[in-house]
Amino acid sequence: MRSLKPLFVLIFLTVLSLGYSQKKVFTAKDIQIIPKPNQVLIQSGSFEFSKNTVFVANTDFQKDISNALINKFEVAAGWRPVLGVKAPQNNFVQFKTDPNLHKEAYKVEVNNNIITITAKGNAGFIYGLETIRQLLPTAIESTYAISSAKWQIPNVVITDEPRFQWRGLMLDLSRHFFDKNYILATIDRLAMHKMNVLHLHLVDDQGWRIEIKKYPKLTEVGAWRVNQENVAWNARLATNPDEKGTYGGFFTQEELKEIVKYAASKNIEVIPEIEMPAHVSSAIAAYPELACFDQRIGVPSGGVWPITDIYCAGKESTFEFLQNVLDEVMTIFPSKYIHIGGDEATKTNWDKCPNCQKRMKDLGLKNSTELQSYFVKRIEKYINSKGKKVIGWDEIVEGGLAPEATVMSWRGTKGGIEAADQGHDVIMTPESPCYFNFYQGPQNEEPLAFDAYNPLNKVYEFEPIVPTMSPAEANHVLGGQANLWAEYLSGPKDSEYMIFPRLAAMAEVLWSSKESRNWIDFTTRLKPMLNRYDYLGINYAKSAYLVTASSTADLAKKQINVTLKNEFPNPDIRYVLGDKTIDHHAVKYINPIEFKETTVLKASLFQDEKPVGKTFTDTIIFHKAFAQKVKYLTPYNDNYKGDANTMVNTIRGSKNFHDGQWQAWLVNDMELVIDFEKQESVEQVIVGALESQGAGVNFPVKIKVLVSNDGIKYQEVGKVSRPYAPNVTSELKDFKINFGKVNTRFVKVIAYNLKKSPKGESSWLFVDEILVN
To answer: What is the DSSP letter of 292?
Structure first.
């Protein structure tokens, strides 16, 4: 036996070494690419990258895109593959040209020895390499070497091309200026998702972001606004034109040319948007003569509505200015399209302006809507003369479309349908679900955003072609686009949070075939994409993991029923009550949870037997006023009336004041009486209120509590005051009024409305619950 021991050791070491060198066996579940390719045929075997792998590149472009992946290996693997011009016998990546393929189509063929990317040209080669990148372990995105990673990809044949030719993202640079480095990083991320359009919103009321050498004041004055960032966007005061702006920035023409060149290397077309005739306060602040009455204004620091300071359509000098601006814009951007905005113009000044009225009379125009159509058509004719096409928001449909204009439909799909019916190309970007400035999770858990809701699953359900369209109309739909307006953004991390992972959903909608899209399948492939985001340092939203709750009150049984849900299909939600910890002992949620006493509820989504995402926590509070009678001495507003028991149903409202749990008063004070129908000993009243100054909702400035035993004669027992204070966020607050114990049947609560905001607008008062203890 002693003599056999070395033999056993040898056999063991041999088997062990074979196990370590054995290549991974891949299955269809290992193909986790977003956007989903059209056709994937997985075969046995795999290709393994090593320091000896050769990227065979015969053009400068092929060298550049190969180096992008080679550089990732150098960092994440600790070694660098070879860049060469001649193929060895095996272990290489090669590019082949097939002129019969469509522009952005590609084919990836992988066997044990060779990877072949076939495409018509550069666009397809980019997307082929991006697909190989996603076949590799997510560790390829690491910023440090990971020795445990196996750099293998499965033997596959992938045949792929996009469904739509326009797959875009719009960044609003006017409301918040993002620097060049962030724009370049965004271009990289668009390419990773096989998106091909970056639409830059360069001009709006709150800032002019592009250097125009003929008109230096556009950036000297128009690019800077008075800093009111500590005030809610729509609560900011009008600026004095004599006060110097300090908040903003702009791109030089050289910086923009660098951005355009870099984007082109990623098959991304940069589309400039130069707004007109409205959303141009920044230009009028710089050059007042562009307006109808030469009015002097400051660059607005926040929201403007209605938008009445617009370009004068009656002055020839307006068109001379715009043509000169566009001439410089077109030397920077080689794009096929120039976006001219055209939205939200309030034309009251045109109706009074003698120059505009003369223009209308001379041209035989019936109204200012037709004058705007003239304005757009004239600008389009000039842009067409330079070999380019016009894009405008769907308002340009009104009054008659310019002959060759492309319509970007944002107010739903109606404008796009009308344009397609008239034979015009259309880009579908309806607010729901394409506006990424909307909330993507419960407002209580999310950073401040526009008061609407576009969660990840809603983005994934987007369909650019409306079912009622004829085949001819559908052919005019170029694609779709996500738009990120920047009123509520303060920096790149905020922007990333709003874009990702919703961009992944949008990318799949616009690239993959409609038939191949499946929400359950997408959520499975999303997990490795999120891992990539982690490695890349992208501050993506984890909102889709959040558990949300909806409650109903059963007043007859004096109980609350709480329903839990999550965005993901068939979620594994588990919960605990009281002070217990959310762990593997948590109860699996199946049916609504019943509560009859004050209880803390904690819940979380579970994956692989572990909680993921933020833990949902809520305290259901039962109090003495629960289910008691409420008499309103001042009626609440019909737009926000909750139900008959909103004030005493223990169900709290959220920052979403449309959730049905709020009652509201416009300008008026809230005054109501709670009747216990018998004497109760009470010592505290809590009034739950909301402040969202951008929406005109303000906390009460004072609250008084009075008690009575006959409902006629009341005695004040407590009060609290809270002076108005600027608030840039949305906030929930419980105002507590404590007093000595009293026996009473009736409790009267008066909450005093701010009445008027500092901006001079009528103030709302929102209350969700009055708790009596």
So the answer is: T
**Nearest 5°: phi and psi at 474?**
-60, -35
Which pair of tokens denotes residue 14? 């041999």
Distance of CA 282 to the CA centre of its chain: 25
Cα 262 off chain centre by = 24
SS3 for 515-557 is HHCCHHHHHHHHHHHHHHHHHHCCCCCCHHHCCEEEEEEECCC
For the chain, what percent of residues have pLDDT higher than 90? Answer: 93
DSSP 436-466: TTEESS-GGGS-S-EEEE--HHHHHT--SS-
**Residue type present at position 283:** A
Contact between residue 720 and residue 728 where contact means Cβ atoms under 8 Å apart? no
- What global pTM score does this model have? 0.93
Mean pLDDT of 488-493: 96
SS (H, E, C) 192-254: HCCCCEEEEECEECCEECECCCCCCHHHHCCCEECCCCCCCHHHCCCCCCCCCCCEECCECHH
CA angle 543, 545, 548 (to 5 degrees): 80
**The pairing of beta strand 702-708 with beta strand 715-721:** antiparallel
Give the active site residue among 199, 279, 424, 623: 279
CA angle, 629 then 631 then 633, to 5°? 165
Q: What is the DSSP letter of 2?
A: G
Element holding 381 (H helix, E strand): helix 368-385
Length of the chain: 773
Distance in angstroms (rounded) separating the CA atoms of residues 532 and 133? 11
Q: Residues 344, 421, 675, 731: which is the catalytic one?
A: 344
Burial tier of 103 (Cβ tally within 10 Å: 0-12, 13-18, 19+): middle
Longest dimension (CA), the chain: 113
Tokens of 669: 């004070």
CB 446 within 8 A of CB 543: yes
User: Looking at 130, 204, 309, 425, which residue is catalytic?
Assistant: 204
- The mean pLDDT value of the chain amounts to 95
For 565-571, what is the mean pLDDT?
A: 91
Active site residue 279: yes
In angstroms, how far is the first alpha carbon of the chain from the final one? 84
**d(Cα 643, Cα 629) in Å, to the nearest integer?**
12
Torsion of CA 142, 146, 152, 153, to 10 degrees: -20
Distance CA 73, CA 250 (A): 36
The predicted model gives 600-609 an average pLDDT of 94
Buried/exposed code over 575-602 (b: 16+ C-beta within 10 A; e: otherwise)? bbeeeeebeeebeebeeebebeeebebb
